Amino acid sequence: MAIAKAERLMNLALCLLGTRRPLTKRELRGSIEAYVEAFGPGDGPAGAGDDAFNRMFERDKDDLRELGMVIETVEGLEGDTGYLARRDSNRLPPITLDAEEAAALGLAAKIWQQARLAGAASGALQKLRAAGMPLAAEDEGPYDPAQPHSALEPRIPAHEAAFEPLMLACRDRRPVVFDYRKANAARPEQRQVEPWILECWRGHWYLAGWDRDRQAERVFRISRITGKVRSRAGKFTAEVPDHVTVRETVESWAGETATGTARIKLRADHGYPLRARALSVREAGGGWDELEIPYGHGLDAWLVELGPDVVVLEPAELRADVVDRLRAVAKG
After folding, report:
1. Which ranges of the sequence are coiled-coil (predicted)?
2. pTM value?
3. Does the CA dihedral 139-4-71-66 come out positive or negative?
4. Helix (H, G, I), strand (E, B) or coil at 37
5. pLDDT over threshold 70, residue 152
6. Which residues contact 96 (CB under 8 A, 6 or more apart)?
7. Which of 47, 133, 288, 330 has a 20 to 30 Å separation from 55 between CA atoms?
8. Structurally, how many domains does the chain consist of?
9. Long-range contacts of 239-243 (CB under 8 A, 24+ apart)
10. In a shared domain, residues 23 and 95
11. Are residues 264 and 298 in the same domain?
12. Cis peptide bond prior to 315, omega within 30° of 0
């Protein structure tokens, strides 16, 4: 199922579940963003757009029913047909999650909260509430990713300005152009990319895709994109692989295939994964060791995890990246 259609069905389901009375087609059309964008709010004279909306609405309603949703059709006193999905008819059986499954859902919710999907999911209900329509009680409302649901609060930040346009470009299979500064470059270069997938690894978001200028697969750290991400017309020229090794590629940057080295001070008896990668280790006194380690631009995320137990000596760029990330953590 296409992501755009899945979002539309989700919003329709939320509207039908979130109201206490049946909603007419006209009310649903004016409340769901995808319908408004495609056909207008439906408050003007009847026209060809009405027929197209009716066909899409009937298909969406049938799709929800095929997915198991119970949707009632109710005839109003004035002859208008309304639609309603009662809570007691659409309850899921109790769900038991283990710790890993609960953490995965929590992470997905955190990303959802910060991305465009959060607005799309809540926009329809907000419009209904603003119009004075009675909605279900707050304690019975739809899932709100902004509300904590357990003591486990994992976070995957998605604050980079490039995140949302790249997420939409991956979804819609649209080529993009952006300026990108490599770890060892003094100034950014323009890159023309067919985006495949976004993935988070060690606190950074990465984009994998096809670099048209280099005619090869590339992985880009989103925080190194400068300026706006601009969409380009046209189709992908390269085939999207079934599996993209984003994490393996990024890990290699921070390790074996790194072209530079870094010097750090590490508190004794800490940072064993870094010690395993070290090219050299010597005692620095005062309970500290000095290490020389391979340096790629994924290394700063490793170092930030060690907090006060690590000090970057050189290069200056790595030290600045670690300081910036620590400041961002302190502000959060």
Report:
1. none
2. 0.43
3. negative
4. helix
5. no
6. none
7. 133
8. 3
9. 240/173, 240/196, 241/196, 241/217
10. yes
11. yes
12. yes
